[in-house]
């Protein structure tokens, strides 16, 4: 692997066998099935976790509820100070945590470090926010009255996360939720349990130094069943769920039945439009990184290129050449561009998608394939593929979480490309490559991209924490991270105060006694 995994585990305080539930500094004696974490990098077992049971889940929720009642009374800037210290601690642990992310999930070491950097950035953002959780003041229609709104802490927030951003998504939620005065319970992906335990241990150090009530940061490790318990639990006013659209529909239905709130960050089917006015120096790295970075396992990965017919052949040739340069292998070796898929199930889905696109009439111009032999023993390494396809193909309409890029043509004006790009069920990220101001503005206009993220001369993947992150349609409509995404973690209250000795009613209603 190029590093000593035992040293990394020691630095992060992980054991070979770990407990799968914690309320902060207390680790529950879980008795669920043992979960094995195997690295897709080399197929070796990294460690095991004794999963949480339903009984453990209820203990954790009770603790979180009690802790919330105390935490909500701590002034927000003081909560911000705790999050500031967490950001500092993450700086100390950036290297080992980045390595473990890379080794357990399979993304490149640079991306592992980048993910931890995002955690640090959101902590910094949240610290400032802790003094800015403000509402508006309105003018009352009644004389001698004042009207304003304020935001109060919401309660216990349940966080369900996906394997592909095993640590950043947790901190996007928790850093904000904690300054907002909430308690958080995290159910990470069962594919990346060890990075989750590492985060919990880092948080534990900071929280115990600051006497944060036990239960503000809780962790429960297990499968979809635990996620379902959260979704159905009226003690959890907000469930923030990141993962597949299938999972999001299930969570949303359960939370909706009890009229709770959900924040959904689901699958994407992201396209890049390449117009005749595109600068190919920007297009090529943008498209290739977007399609093959993280081995195509980002929610914002580029799945479709919509290329103007007049430049189609040229772009295609450049891409095919660029794909020949890709080095696939151990993601901890910085010379490699592409690491493994998460597991062999993902490899099977990649293979099925390549077959399906051909069966539907597509043409694999970069064939891809599963790699074997030295360095590829885990069976999770695949070569990125490119297929010429049409947007209406069922497989193109579907998000395959693997490095398969579909090329399609458009004729005439940019509106034709926008129609294709919007012609899928998902609505996460989108990009246009053009140096023409009018084309760019049409893409960003009311009649343009229908996605939550729309970029100009930038690929579809890679977002900054300062903006609100999320997408429309089957991507779920949630927004996390920057801008005013914090509001979902609080409850809004409108207050009207009468400072006269009369009681005028709104809308001038008369009610004389
Ligand atoms: P997944 O849906 O299989 O699992 C995600 C999480 O949901 C896991 O923790 C899992 O245990 C839990 N879960 C599964 N079914 C559940 C249910 N019925 N009720 C409650 N919880 C349930 O997703 P994955 O394979 O880990 O991740 C890949 C997917 O995540 C892709 O579709 C990707 O686009 C999406 N994703 C989206 C974003 C975003 O911000 N929009 C970010 C990262 C990943």
Automatic annotation (TrEMBL):
Its EC number is 1.2.1.3. Keywords: NAD, Oxidoreductase. Gene3D superfamilies: Aldehyde Dehydrogenase, Chain A, domain 1, Aldehyde Dehydrogenase, Chain A, domain 2. The active site is at 265. InterPro entries: Ald_DH/histidinol_DH, Ald_DH_C, Ald_DH_CS_GLU, Ald_DH_N, Aldehyde_DH_dom, ALDH7A1-like. Residues 27-494 form the Aldehyde dehydrogenase domain. It is an enzyme of class 1 (oxidoreductase). GO terms for molecular function: aldehyde dehydrogenase (NAD+) activity. Belongs to the aldehyde dehydrogenase family. Homotetramer. PANTHER family: ALPHA-AMINOADIPIC SEMIALDEHYDE DEHYDROGENASE. This is aldehyde dehydrogenase (NAD(+)). It comes from Lishizhenia tianjinensis. The lineage of its organism: Bacteria, Pseudomonadati, Bacteroidota, Flavobacteriia, Flavobacteriales.
């Amino acid at each position: 692997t190029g590093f000593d995994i035992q040293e990394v585990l020691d630095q992060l305080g992980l054991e070979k066998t770990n407990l799968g539930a914690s309320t902060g500094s207390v680790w529950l004696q879980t008795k669920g099935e043992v979960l094995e974490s195997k690295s897709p990098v080399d197929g070796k077992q990294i460690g095991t976790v004794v999963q949480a049971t339903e009984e453990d889940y209820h203990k954790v929720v009770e603790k979180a509820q009690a802790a919330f009642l105390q935490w909500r009374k701590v002034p927000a800037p003081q909560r911000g100070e705790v999050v500031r210290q967490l950001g500092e601690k993450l700086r100390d642990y950036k290297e080992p945590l980045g390595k473990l992310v890379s080794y357990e999930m399979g993304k490149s070491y640079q991306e592992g470090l980048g993910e931890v950097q995002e955690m640090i950035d959101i902590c910094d953002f949240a610290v400032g926010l802790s003094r800015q959780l403000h509402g508006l003041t309105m003018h009352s229609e009644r004389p001698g009255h004042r009207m304003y709104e304020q935001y109060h802490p919401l309660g216990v927030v349940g966080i369900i996360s996906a394997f592909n951003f095993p640590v950043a998504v947790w901190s996007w939620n928790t850093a904000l939720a904690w300054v907002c005065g909430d308690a958080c319970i995290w159910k990470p992906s069962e594919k990346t349990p060890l990075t989750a335990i590492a985060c919990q241990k880092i948080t534990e150090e900071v929280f115990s130094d600051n006497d944060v009530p036990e239960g503000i940061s809780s962790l429960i490790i297990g499968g979809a069943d635990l996620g379902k318990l959260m979704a159905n639990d009226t003690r959890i006013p907000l469930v923030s769920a990141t993962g597949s659209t299938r999972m999001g529909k299930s969570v949303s239905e359960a939370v909706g039945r009890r009229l709770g709130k959900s924040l959904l960050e689901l699958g994407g089917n992201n396209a890049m439009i390449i117009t005749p006015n595109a600068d190919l120096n920007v297009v090529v790295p943008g498209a290739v990184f977007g399609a093959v970075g993280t081995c195509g396992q980002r929610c914002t990965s580029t799945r479709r290129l919509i290329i103007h017919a007049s430049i189609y052949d040229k772009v295609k040739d450049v891409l095919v050449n660029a794909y020949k340069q890709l080095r696939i292998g151990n993601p901890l070796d910085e010379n490699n561009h592409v690491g493994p898929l998460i597991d062999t199930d993902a490899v099977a889905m990649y293979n099925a998608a390549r077959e399906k696109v051909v069966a539907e009439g597509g043409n694999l111009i970069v064939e891809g394939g599963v790699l074997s032999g030295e360095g590829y023993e885990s069976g999770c390494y695949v070569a990125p593929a490119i297929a010429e396809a049409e947007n209406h193909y069922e497989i193109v309409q579907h998000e395959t979480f693997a490095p398969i890029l579909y090329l399609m043509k458009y004729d005439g004006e940019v509106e034709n490309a926008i129609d294709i790009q919007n012609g899928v069920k998902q609505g996460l990220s989108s990009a246009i490559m053009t140096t023409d101001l009018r084309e760019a503005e049409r893409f960003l206009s009311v009649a343009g991209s229908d996605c939550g993220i729309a970029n100009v001369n930038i690929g579809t993947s890679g977002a900054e924490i300062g903006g609100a992150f999320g997408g429309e349609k089957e991507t779920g409509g949630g927004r996390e991270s920057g801008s005013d995404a914090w509001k979902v973690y609080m409850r809004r209250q409108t207050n009207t105060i009468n400072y006269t000795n009369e009681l005028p009613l709104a809308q001038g209603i008369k009610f004389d006694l």
